[in-house]
Amino acid sequence: MLSKNIETALNKQIRIEAESSQVYLSMACWAEVQGLEGVAQFMYRQSDEERMHMLKLIKYVNERGGHASITDLKAPKAVFGTFKEMFTELYQHELFVSNSINELVHVAFDEKDYATHNFLQWYVAEQIEEEAQAKTILDKINLIGDDKGGLYLFDRDIQQITVTSSVGINK
Ligand code: OFO
């Protein structure tokens, strides 16, 4: 059975994962209307993954005697100045999510809720992977700069970008 404190903290994370899904969906739309199909597909996939992260938390809360709350969400940014700006925001967003997961792990530990602490380890590993991937992409974008040809190739190659983290978690 979850304590009220843990339930509230997990519900906060459910909302963050839902908002992450919306953030990447909005990035997918912007990339798509800019004509970068590869980037758009990558963002659509990221958005789906965030929804999966949200669902995993929802199921956990409901199965442990809590009640997952589905709330209204903050509207994501719809327009970006450049692709570099968009990928910088993606990286910053992943850092923010990692922080939030770390805080959650801390709460679980403080409350001696070892089942939740154990459940959250999947998210800890996932964030290592997502942060590494976002950083790899941002490094590539920084190399390309404003070069249109580079961006064209990047759009083609982004489908292949995957970072094998040392943790080796399967999604
Ligand atoms: Fe939910 O992993 Fe990214 O944010």
CATH topology: Ferritin
Report the helical percentage. Answer: over 70%
The count of DSSP E runs of length 2 or more, i.e. the number of strands, is: 0
Radius of gyration (CA) equals 17 Å
The second-level CATH architecture is Up-down Bundle
User: What is the tally of helical segments?
Assistant: 5
Structural class: mainly alpha
Write a structural description.
This protein has 171 residues and is an all-alpha fold. It has helices spanning 4-33, 37-63, 83-110, 114-144, 148-157. The structure holds hydroxy diiron-OXO moiety (OFO). Residues 17, 20, 50, 53, 94, 97, 126, 130 line the site of hydroxy diiron-OXO moiety.
Task: Write the SSE topology.
Blueprint: H1 4-33, H2 37-63, H3 83-110, H4 114-144, H5 148-157
The chain binds hydroxy diiron-OXO moiety.
Search tags:
171 residues, mainly alpha, Ferritin, 5 helices, elongated, disordered C terminus, binds hydroxy diiron-OXO moiety
Summarize the structure.
The C terminus is likely disordered. The protein has one domain: Up-down Bundle (Ferritin).
